[in-house]
Every structure is written in structure tokens, then in C-alpha cells.
Design goal:
The protein is an alpha/beta fold and 352 residues long. It is built from 13 helices and 15 strands. Helix 3 packs antiparallel against helix 4, helix 6 packs parallel to helix 7 and helix 7 packs parallel to helix 8.
């Protein structure tokens, strides 16, 4: 049943992207415009992703490998960004065509004039603002919108080894890359040696801004807690206030364990007297977890846990889970402050 739902949702998502691709291509043609990719132009701090098998993707949603532009087992990051595949993508965008379906829903897809598009196709720079690294593609959850069977087929290796981490860390240092999103299509703390991984990255790049997104289930040892103290920002993806609301999407989740581990990290930070990492609870909104009482309870739970903030984010995936209340109810417009993704409620948790 789980596999069927994942496959059905993936097919529906692909159909939606196909339709959107056609609409976008017709729109730019009618307006005399063209496309370019901020990630492939070196303007993004997010979407260039080094996957668990050391392949390089141009986006963070490369479930099937269609976005592969290179392989760090055979070439450098510079060579991957200058590869024939990457250049083919750039030229396609400059001609007004989307090279892969993921482009249709990518935040780094940009509209511009034909002249500017040709400039971006011919001239690009290194992604010094930031990159994403998928240290593992393994995850204890089976989220409905995550077609895990397809993801595993598209990776030759499920985990990076420490030599891979050293190569990635050296690449970051060589190019002066400013930020690292240390997650993608797996659970970062599922890697048994994640503590060593983070120590290597931090030793080679002492000033690097590191963000980890985790479901919290496996951040459950003292060693991992200590490693988490070396990063700048940790986001806990907990999509509900109990097992029932979480497992409607995050199948295999345990609210009590994830929430406990989040509280433990806050307590550990307080115990050693640090103000970092910033700790946020990310709460994806669906039509089964977005009732006003649930949201208010989540805010109270977040406050009690001692996190710095909780962010409520609507989504269109899976299609049947869309939170219409977020878009219609005035209640959500009164919550906290707007973000590019939803609404954030902040708490005054830092020591005086």
C-alpha cells in the first residue's frame, strides 16, 4: 500500500510538472522571454547537490537522476559544472525550453530576456554562495511524497565514506563556498559516522555556515548531540503533534521520540552554555494537521521544548494533502511573521 501511494503520488507529480512545463514554455515564447537557471549560473546557495554516490545534481529533488551533471569520482566540481550535460541544460533554457521536468517546479528557474539568457548560457560562475551535500540517502521514514524505491535505484552508493567527505570539504574550502545544506533525500543522522563527518568538514572549513535538516528520530546519542553543536542551524521536520498526524505523511514516524530528541538537543545546548546552533521546528501543513487547535498546540509544544522558532509551511505534495485552511483562514495570517515558505513563530529562548 505504501509503495502504491508513493508511486501514484510520483506519477501525479510528474503529470503536474509536464503540464506546468508546457504552460511555462508557451508563456515565455508569447512574452518574448527566455529562461536561465540560478543554480547553474552560480547564483544559488542551495540547489547544486553532491549526492551520496558523489554524483552532482543541478537540483535538490533529483529522484531519478535526470538532473545529474557530473560525478566527483571522475572529475572536479568545476568540471561537473562545465560538463556537456550542464551546458546542454543552459542552452535549452536559453532557447525557451525546460530540459528536465523538475525545472518546472524549481525555485531557481528564472525568467529573463533572450540576450541575458544567452549570456547565462555562455558564462557562469562557481556556486560560492552554497551547495547541498547528501551524506546518505537512507531514511527510516517512508514519506508519501518521497518515492524512495526510485531514489535508491538512482544512487550507486547509499552512504558517503569519510574519504568522500574529505574531498567534499576540500572542494568547499578551495572555492570559498560560504554555506552548506547538509541534507537532501536521506536522513543525515542515519549515517553511523556523522559525528566524524561533521568534525572533518568543520576542521577544514572553520567558518562555514552549516545547516542540517533532520526528522529527529536518529539524533539520539551523546556523540551525535556533540556533533550537532558544530553546526549553525538545525531544522527538525516534525509534521504533526502526535503519531497519528505524523504518520499520515511521515510513515514510520514516532512523535514522542522525535520531540524528545529535539528537547534533548535544546537541553544539551543550554548545558554547555552555547547559543548555537539555532534550532527550529519545521511543521509541514496538510489538511489533516492544520486545524487551529493543532497549530496552537504545536506552538505550545515548541515553546515548552525551548526551540528558537517553529515554521509552518504549506505544500502541494501530496496533491490530496493540500492545506486549504492556510490559504483561506485569517488565523494563519495572524501567526508570527511571513517567510518565503509560510509563517514563523519565534520564541525568546537565548540566555540573557
Amino acid at each position: 500500500m505504501i509503495l502504491f501511494e508513493e508511486r501514484l503520488n510520483y506519477i501525479c507529480q510528474q503529470v503536474f510538472r509536464m503540464a506546468k512545463k508546457c504552460v511555462l514554455e508557451l508563456r515565455v515564447t508569447a512574452a518574448g522571454k527566455r529562461f536561465y537557471c540560478a543554480a547553474l549560473s552560480g547564483e544559488s546557495n542551495y540547489n547544486i547537490c553532491i549526492n551520496s554516490d558523489m554524483t552532482v545534481s543541478c537540483n535538490c529533488q533529483d529522484y531519478d537522476g535526470s538532473g545529474h551533471i557530473g560525478d566527483l569520482n571522475r572529475e572536479s566540481l568545476e568540471e561537473a559544472l562545465a560538463s556537456s550535460k550542464a551546458n546542454l541544460f543552459r542552452r535549452s533554457l536559453a532557447s525557451g525550453k525546460l530540459p528536465i521536468l523538475v525545472c518546472a517546479s524549481c525555485s531557481d528557474l528564472k525568467f529573463t530576456t533572450p540576450l541575458e539568457a544567452r549570456h547565462h548560457a555562455a558564462s557562469w560562475q562557481m556556486c560560492t554562495q552554497g551547495i547541498m551535500v547528501e551524506n546518505t540517502v537512507v531514511c527510516p521514514y517512508r514519506c508519501t511524497a518521497c518515492y524512495r524505491t526510485l531514489i535508491l535505484k538512482s544512487r550507486r552508493s547509499t552512504h558517503m565514506v569519510l574519504n568522500d567527505i574529505r574531498k567534499v570539504a576540500a572542494t568547499i574550502r578551495r572555492h570559498g563556498i560560504k554555506s552548506l545544506q547538509y541534507f537532501s533525500l536521506g536522513e543525515p543522522f542515519a549515517a553511523h559516522d556523522i559525528a566524524k563527518q561533521i568534525h572533518i568538514i568543520r576542521e577544514i572549513n572553520p567558518n562555514l555556515d552549516i545547516c542540517i535538516s533532520t526528522n529527529g528520530l536518529m539524533l539520539n546519542t551523546d556523540e551525535k548531540l556533540d556533533a550537532a553543536m558544530l553546526v549553525n542551524y538545525i531544522v527538525f521536520s516534525i509534521d504533526g503533534i502526535n503519531d497519528y498526524t505524523m504518520n499520515k505523511y511521515q510513515r514510520g514516524a514516532s512523535f514522542s521520540k522525535a520531540y524528545h530528541n529535539m528537547r534533548q538537543l535544546v537541553a544539551h545546548r543550554r548545558q554547555i552554555g552555547k547559543s548555537t546552533p539555532t534550532i527550529e521546528w519545521k511543521y509541514i501543513l496538510f489538511n489533516w494537521n492544520d486545524h487551529e487547535k493543532m497549530i496552537l498546540q504545536a506552538i505550545e509544544l515548541a515553546r515548552n521544548a525551548g526551540v528558537d522558532s517553529i515554521e509552518f509551511r504549506p505544500t502541494r505534495n501530496p496533491f490530496y494533502g493540500i492545506s486549504w485552511r492556510f490559504h483561506i483562514k485569517k488565523f494563519f495570517r495572524t501567526l508570527g511573521e511571513p517567510t518565503p515558505y509560510g509563517r514563523r513563530v519565534r520564541f525568546d529562548t537565548r540566555p540573557a
